[in-house]
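Final report, results section. Input specification for complex C-07:
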Amino acid sequence: MFEEIGTTTDGDLIINVGPQHPATHGVLHLVITLNGETIRKVEPHLGYIHRSIEKMCESLTYRQFIYVTSRMDYLSSHINNHACAMCVEKGLQIEVPERAKVIRILLDELTRIASHELWWGAMAMDLGAFTPFFHAFRERESINDIMEETCGARLTMNFIVPGGLMADIHPNFQKRVKDFIRLYKSKFEEYNEMVTGNVIFRNRMEGVGYLSKEDAISFGCTGPTARGSGVSCDVRKWFPYEGYEKITFDEIIETGGDSLARYMVRVREMNQSIRIIEQLIDAIPEGEYQAKTKAVLKLPKGEFYSRVETARGEFGVYIVSEGGTTPYRIKFRSPGFSNLSALDQMARGSKLGDLVAMMGTLDLVIPDIDR
Amino acid sequence: MNDTILQNELLKIFPELVFEPGTEWLQVTVQSQQWLPLANTLRYKVDMDFDFLFCVTCIDWKTHLAMVYHLRSTTSKLHLVVKATLNPLNPEIDSVTSIWKTADFHEREVYEMFGVNFKGHPDLRLLILPDGWEGRNPLRKDFEDPINMIRL
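Structure output:
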């Protein structure tokens, strides 16, 4: 797996970035072929954190496998749980109570903001600015506190289960979310002042890592990566689930195709998430938080696919059932895996220093890629 | 264009296709040697335009392997699930990397996890598994891990 530092027959230099490198945010290993400082080829080597979750799930019941899925894209664990719960509900034709649906959307959007906050801070840190990281974590921390109070966890939530939710929300939930919205709105301008409008930052992002619309579709890119290239692909708009069709929000699309466009999509998307939360936070219907389900879930024979929009793109769950209590085969279509495959195309011809900006705006979460 | 029209159009060009009724998305089973011409038609024929290959996977049914391709058109929002049956002893199918670039990574994953040989793939080698793993395919049903860390 490890290729030594060496030269090709053309005289190009081969270097390794990672698997232990601060800019890869996890154990991603890139083998880069360089001509001078120009990138000829980028080859990702994956698998350092591969846990074979798909194989594990084959011996876990439909109630148990939700817990493993939180460990894939750990920054959008609610949304992963949501996709899996939806897939099981589709198979069993469970009608989820309205209250659970609204709370699910609220948690999803809070997760999305938390994930984008972390990305924003980490990406600015990759480009050499350390301060934004602390600013981002200040707001993210209050989301984590809300999650801790309601779900009892700060990272791997396991709160959304087939049939609804694990428990009802904490009595303080609405008040704390409103407090968070106030905090966020008072701080958001700082983000733009500090990073978005910063001339050094813009110069490092503009025109870097260009991905055309055709390539974005062909590489199977989804989420902000594709929307930065002008592809309309928001699952919440295209194939609405859990009542997203009743909520007013915009799908953010930028046509630049470069790192700055992808950056702008994510920053503007946070405001849309706030907009969704504002519409729902006072409109949580009363009622049950969980549908009545059997203790042992048995999916009928067949194939079920469900998908959601995570912070990184389209996350799909494909369950093949033989009628038993465990899936016969399960496949997770993770957004990061497809997004990463476009990195080579983006990076060819640019300078080595720009690779960090490209990886930053792809928002890679390695456990999501490796699964 | 809707599912029925698509089904009829496809049957005109490929009469031996088998459509499966009663599924969420239109589902079709194809002979493995017919997959590449079918893929070309689906991608490039006017009004089909299945430009988005969002999921490629394989299922080990013990008696045979089944490749599953999930396709979507970003213009018409139509979905199509294409399946191809492979012989488990010598599984082989044409690569579609030249049509959808995303197939590159997905096919490499299926290659190492199921041992399917993708003919015409430009760079078919291990992606996730460590070097020297060749020959043992973890997601096959008969795979036994000597360390057994994942058996629960």
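The first strand of chain B starts at residue 18 and ends at 20. The two ends of chain B are 47 Å apart (CA to CA). This concludes the modelling results for the funded period.
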